[in-house]
Amino acid sequence: MLDKKYNHKEVEKGKYKKWLEKEYFQSGDKSKDPYCIVIPPPNVTGKLHLGHAWDTALQDIIIRYKRMDGFDAMWLPGMDHAAIATEAKVVAKLKKEGINKYELGREGFLEKAWEWKEEYAENIRKQWAKLGLSLDYRKERFTLDEGLSNAVKEVFVRLYNEGLIYRGERIINWDPEAKTALSNEEVIYKEVKGAFYHIKYFIEGEDDYLEIATTRPETLLGDTAVAVNENDERYQKYIGKNVILPLLNKKIPVIADQHADPEFGTGVVKITPAHDPNDFEVGERHNLERINILNEDGTMNEKTGKYQGLDRFKARDEIVKDLEKEGLLIKIEEITHNVGHSERTGVMVEPYLSKQWFVKMRPLADRILENQKNKETKVNFVPARYEKTMNHWMEITYDWCISRQLWWGHRIPAWYKGEEVYVGLEKPKGEGWKQDEDVLDTWFSSALWPFSTLGWPNETEDLKRYYPNNVLVTGYDIIPFWVNRMTFQALHFTNQRPFKDCLIHGLIRDKMGRKMSKSLGNGVDPMDVIDTYGADALRFFLTTNTAPGMDLRYDEEKVKSAWNFINKLWNASRFVLMNIEDIDNIDYEGKDLSIEDKWILTKLNETIKTVRTNMEKYEFNNAGGALYKFIWEDFCDNYIELSKSKLNNATTKKVLLKVITDILKMLHPFMPYVTEEIYSKLNVKEAESIMISSYPKYNKKEVFEEKEKLDKVIEDITNIRNLKVTNNITKEAGISLKAEKEVEDIYKNMLKITYENLNKEKEGEKYEYKSPYINIVYFQKGKEIDKNILKTEIEKLEASINKRKKLLANENYVNKAPANVVEQDRKKLKEEEEKLERLKEQL
RNA sequence: GGGCGAUUAGCUCAGUUGGUUAGAGCACUUGCCUUACAAGCAAGGGGUCGGGAGUUCGAGUCUCUCAUCGCCCACCA
Questions:
Q1: ipTM of the predicted structure?
Q2: Which nucleotide's C1' sits nearest to the alpha carbon of A337?
């Protein structure tokens, strides 16, 4: 028997371990159709947050549903080495211990990083277990493991040989804190206060000057030209002349270039090819020298004379001071503008000239855009609008900078000897080859995740069976980083989409709608929530409180509400278990079913249909809502109450058992622990675990037309209760009752009418309620009847009838609206008119 | 500047291809310790769907427009 109250800690205890021991999570039954999800690999940088809990709960719901529904369901776990993020953490940890990364050296550092990885991976597995995720751990992968590293190398080499990977000197986004290049996607633009510094650039040998505005005055040390637009009449006369670069007193030319916009600022632009992507292009066009003025750590380098060694911001201050001293500073105009920051370290990124490896994106992106036009082969986004996000990024894409000046990651498979470059899977033969020191962007390996985890480039059984994956579940913020890249790599290397569907969810926010972040300190640890309310309540909250693709606010009250729902389920189950001890099968006979049995079985089947439809559409909010309503209202409030007077009837008991079994099964993907606990206590069950039982199927034979009748009876009961409450009818009131035989007891039980008060006295005011199935009168002495309520109701009803009559008199409506809709209206009108009759009689 | 989303009850959110009287949870009112559950039961109150225009027999739902908020992208010398 169940305890009196639902206790999530007791319920969850030991279950996950048992599931693992029984190997329920394992895939591979070849007699079934395959269904595969690969987990978005969490970074081995720390704890899982609520966003992970949400993301994985969604996947677990899908995979458990599919497993119960007869698929060979495979959910592949794994983790991401998260190159820059992890390296930053390990560096910080070492720093605390007084160890410098560079003193440690590459090998020593990697050893520490692997130690870190093991520790955090184990922690993540523990959290997955707490959440109850049915992952097939035999398939677990790590982006840096041998197989995946081979896949990475293979892809790099092949793209290189196809001309889709190249090495070149470009302006990239430089993170001076992590001392590495970043991709455009890893740069976050934030609005900051800054200034336009207006500076005089004197014309060589003249008293005249050009006024130039810049937000980064320190870069003037790297200027190699000044540009104006050739159509700009103000400046045409200067083209071809030289200006004197302030502070350095160096001659640089005035050139004509379309980059200078006469409408913007003063119309004159300083050109710093080594520190601005646009200027870089101008430099290319005019063959200008590229002068890099920065060190890797963001300090000024040896080319900057007296400023050498100063931090870039300190140097800016000094330069502005010096300009002012020399009378070259015209004004400082304060502005707010968007400046790029590193996604990981948060520092301002520096556009920086550097030799890096790039993926040539245009052909790969076009492949996606082309493929998305084909309904049969495209990635189906849910909600569909997110396809636009992917397409948009693919339309504007830049070449992808993939090299990172880090140690933790896949080392670039390129070797150099003098001017020679060799790219291959292995070190080339011969002496003197030196491998590239850099590693690859972490997303380069995660882009291969859907197929590299299944064994690609080898033609493995798993790859044949589980690829493409059925669905990928992730947040919309990850589309540009990951979904896009998986898609073009998959199309390029496997000629298929990586997954058929892509279920997108939003971001988790705090109760006030703010993003959860460390700096705000508003983060919620899912493990704390599980401790307080249990994994089942957390999962139900996360997956049923929002429509697909929308953000979700974390609200403890709602988790509590989920807990209450589970407690309700618990108690309903308790009631059933208390009363079915002598039942050893659920094979009831159709002829033995009462009207209430038929009613609940019909409702059950309607619910199964709705739930299944919504599970297939990933609309778990609707599936959860339908279950909530069915369980609480139909089953608990009505069927259980109705069953209480029939507990000596074996059929009633069997129906109770049948319904609670199907309820548990349908809820299982949402709340695995509690459903398993209750299921284990059932007398009759098809499997030793609910996990491997079958998902309920819609059964047309158990849909009965008597359902309509009981719906009406229940409506009557509500109305009669309302009549009693609004008129203060007491227990002592006399009752006269006439009801249809089949439903008479239902009225009596639900209205708590006993023989004592039936026909007891028939004096006093009459309170009457009539319907097709019942005619009941309450007699209460010494009370005036408040007929106002009745009058209002009649007025309302009359208004509704008039409206409907008018509608049905409208030829346009009758001719154009679907027949069933019109028929519904006619039926409704008839009912309303009958009801009006009855009410008028009572007046 | 471009795109996307949101705007529905006091709060947080649903509302599927346009079709009865727009739903839920929490909060609120009233009455109940009825032996599955007081973290519960019963009965209620509360919104005209951001504003405006249009299409339609019929609009929360489709179109246009305006407003506010949020996100993404671009610009930012």
A1: 0.95
A2: B76
